[in-house]
Hints:
Elements: H1 5-8, H2 26-35, E1 43-49, H3 52-57, E2 68-72, H4 77-93, E3 101-108, H5 109-114, H6 117-126, E4 131-136, E5 162-163, E6 166-167, H7 176-181, E7 187-192, H8 196-208, E8 213-218, H9 222-225, H10 232-241, E9 248-251, E10 254-257, H11 266-271, H12 285-307
Parallel strand pairs: 1-2, 1-3, 3-4, 4-8, 7-8
Antiparallel strand pairs: 5-6, 7-9, 9-10
Amino acid sequence: MSTKLTDLVQKPQFLSGGHRLCAGCGASIVVRQILMGAPDDVKLVIANPTGCLEVSTTIYPYTSWNTSYIHCAFENAASTLSGAEAAYQSLKEQGKIKEDFRFIAFGGDGGTYDIGLQALSGALERGHRLIYVCYNNEAYMNTGIQRSGATIMGSWTTTSPYGRYSSGKKENRKDLTAIAAAHNIPYVAQGSISHWRDLVRKAQKAFATDGPAFINVLSPCHRGWRYPMEKTIEVARMAVQSCIWPLYEVENGKWSLTASVKKQPVEEYLKSQGRFAHLFKGENKKILDIIQENVDAEWDKLQKRCEQK
């Protein structure tokens, strides 16, 4: 399939404008770029757990979705979609459905890294033909900017505040993309809205996969990250260039980097966001060194994985 912009803009818009997501929100950009990778000859079924994307696109009696859509609970998007996909496979085998369908879940990091991890793991292990996309804004943004398993060490959130006795979140984030890859599914990828052609190509591969696919996409949130709303794409690009969010894919167990970077110090990325402003004051500055060390170690580990034949 083509990734030419002139071709992609002609494709149907499955998420219409006029929704109530914040201006500058990364989530709607994630959805549009992923669905640009959908084949033209299939019908789509979208599952969406409670979160920013759901509450802002389906306020009763309105919807922004131009396709089949299931709103499910915070924790069970993957299992809900598994059931829909299993029913479809049965009906198609019986000859009761002729059309080809693809099943896609869009969940935030709260409903994916944490609350929905068990359901996601089960869906991947069972081998359902579905795509799970995590729009990762690194906190529970819909309910008040609380820390999640995706939140970076040192981040300010409402449940990991900074002050006399705290320098923000104390723990490293979990590596959910590697966790998904450990299920030995056909396709896993990490993407960013700043690299749209790379993300659309990964979506095309996911749609073509005969089995589960998982894509983890960085989705900056200017409300929670504290940067000007017009800087969303720039901030996402800085995350890639600093290697705090590297772009890669795992196809049938083979790890590959998908973007060339001239590795930049992570400090410049952190400076761009108010959630890290306290790290540049007093004793908190030592956290900057720890974050850089963590990023360097993870980047080295990823490079070694991608060099393996």
